[in-house]
Amino acid sequence: MSAVEDYVARIEETCGEEKDYVVTFKYERGNETVQKILKKAKVEKSISQIIFELTFGNVSFRLYGTGKAIFRNVKDKEELQKVLADLLL
Amino acid sequence: MLDPYKIRQYFPILKRKINNHPLIYLDNAATTQKPKQVIEAIKEFYENHNANVHRAIHMLSQESSELHENAHKEVAKFINADDMEEIVFVRGTTEAINLVAYAWGLHNLKSEDEVLVTLMEHHSNIVPWEMLSKINGFQVKYAEVNDDGTLNYESFENAISHKTKIVCLSHVSNVTGVITDVKRIAKIAHEYGALALVDAAQSVPHLPVDVKDLDIDFLAFSGHKMLGPTGIGTLYGKRGILEEMEPFHGGGSMIKEVTFNTVTRRCSISLNDLPWKFEAGTPNICGGVGLMAAVRYLNNIGMENVKEHEEILTAYTIRRMQECEKVKIYGPEDASLKCGIVPFNVEGLSSHDVALFLESYGIMVRSGFHCAQPLHEKFKLKSSARASFYIYNMREEIDRLVEVLKEIE
User: Fold this and answer.
1) Could you read off the pLDDT of A31-79 as tens digits, one per residue?
2) Domain ranges, ordered by start, for chain B
3) Which of B34, B58, B317, B349 lies at a C-alpha separation of 20 to 30 Å from B204?
4) Which chain A residues are closer than 8 Å to B350 by Cβ?
5) Catalytic: B371?
6) Tell me, which fold does domain B39-299 have in CATH?
7) Could A17 and B382 be called an inter-chain contact, meaning their C-beta atoms sit closer than 8 Å?
8) Domain total in chain A
9) Reported ipTM
10) Class in CATH terms, B4-30+302-408
11) Å between B345 CA and nearest CA of chain A
């Protein structure tokens, strides 16, 4: 049974007034993770196929082709873990 | 004039590719990359000279001690200090400022006194003073910054008074790159009987700094921002002031003697000479060796050349970035007022989005507050992206940065 930890290498709160979360996916599973998320979330916009602006339920986030994502308006790390679990598992 | 193409061959990391693109490293205000000369000096130390310094008579310890002392001497020469007694090795700028706060401020600042800083300071030059004020009860006052990021000298002159005991300010802002006239500030501070502490984390690596000419009392800077290793930095202090100060940390090396009195059943200590009085415990010997190699490398290039190169790059960056419709640059447009730092935002995107987009093209910039939240609040910014340059950066890299920024627009 896979877990969020199998896909996520790091979660960091961003520095700045916006308290967003930067999620770095495991390098070796980067492509797979990006594809998984793109299948589940709704693509609102894409810039050069590098940045994808996505929504998933009430959560909006940006996914990067390089295997990172910035999540906005999530309450805390616990909620983020739940969102990631819904997206990845 | 320096030749970045020639310089780059000595920096192994610049050959790396990130996301299949050549690495363009524009985060030099955070830390710089290391040339082979520094890497080799560290390797050579551990392979051939490693031993603890001082008070051992074997050959390795003598070699190590000599290297450690020579590192102090080279750094002293680099900033034109009188001698190595005025050079205290610390972990970095933050520790240097904390050393002054606790070894000088704790004993000299009273509740009726004031410490004057500016709104453009890095947190490392705010937090130690705010923390100490909770113990000693003095006031921390903040001089204003103009809309272009330059220091408001009038506000500074209005804020200083005979209550001011120390003025603490950065020579170069780590957000805007603005150079402050610290010589002028030190002169005013001294007229009021206050000391002047300069956070030189962003100036010593980028322009010639002469502590005698500036006539400042303390200067703090980090080795890793000037090609040296992390974990080593310098506090310069005028000899007379350092002599009067209490030590910061207690332990080995910083004492001459610890004698036990059988009557009082207490130990009495006699302090070591400068600079060792402030270097308790085993120092970062290898860090000093690396810093010495970095200083020698920069001396070979010439600090005037470093400054000129960055000024040219900064002017070029500002001009090229102005071609981007949605990019807003902060700080003065005149590159001669700055070191090589350009803060910016892209309309409609957070600074982190910009940084991640650039990263996908191998371009490394920093995003966030850059440890200077009060300045961002002053500018009403949620955060900013920051491109910062050093000796190995080239115009072609700026062209690439602008090309990618245009794409993101």
Assistant:
1) 899 999 999 999 999 887 788 999 999 899 999 988 999 998 888 999 9
2) 4-30+302-408, 39-299
3) B317
4) 14, 16, 18, 20, 70
5) yes
6) Aspartate Aminotransferase; domain 2 (3.40.640)
7) yes
8) 1
9) 0.85
10) alpha beta
11) 13
